[in-house]
Design a protein that fits this description.
Structural class: mainly beta
Shape: globular
Largest sheet: 10 strands, antiparallel, barrel
Mean pLDDT: 90
CATH architecture: Beta Barrel
Radius of gyration: 17 Å
Distance between the termini: 28 Å
Helix content: 10-25%
Strand order of the largest sheet: 4-5-6-7-8-9-10-12-13-14
Number of domains: 1
Number of strands: 14
Amino acid sequence: MQQNFAARHCDIVPDTRFRELLGEGAWNTLPLSVRNRFGKRLRGGASVVYQGEVVAMRRTLPGYLLSQLARLVGGPLPHDMSSLQQPAVVTVTEDCAGEGQFWIRQYGRAAGFPQVIHSSKRFAGPTGIEEYIGYGIGMALQVAAEHDALVFRSDHYFLQIGSLRLRLPSCLSPGDLTITHRDLGDTRFLFSLTLTSRLFGELVHQDALFHDMEVDL
């Protein structure tokens, strides 16, 4: 069985998928470091690893209840406030079969095993990019370049059962999800996740500060 390994220069090839989603003009407004991170494609089972630390967390009572409920489908939301000031690791591996990327986010906790979140980004669907968390549950995303950041926003959620795709009505939506990759210079970037509800407002927010571990093109 082939094992993943840290990306080397020979494992990285140029990738235009995010640039095509944004358009040339918007893509060129992003800092070079952001374009480097999202403008490369891995091959041969290689992985890119980013290390960092959770620097901020907020959660309301409805957000707590939702994050606990989400554990039934893989726990895609941060659910332990003790992850604050704990190590965080993100690993990105090319999904050769699915023409996308596997993302693994690991958040340390004050005690016990870390929380591990698995997802798969695929360049498909009506918006051009979707994120799957397993159990047939997925989310179509809109991507935008805003100042020094690449921003992903949920467009709608869906349930995939074989070839059947069911778009979930807004009343069954967990909320509007925004994920921001903001460049801070000096090989550092801030990964922010915010989930908001029309009824309850902000439910969950998390900031994690990362830095590059691999050599860019």
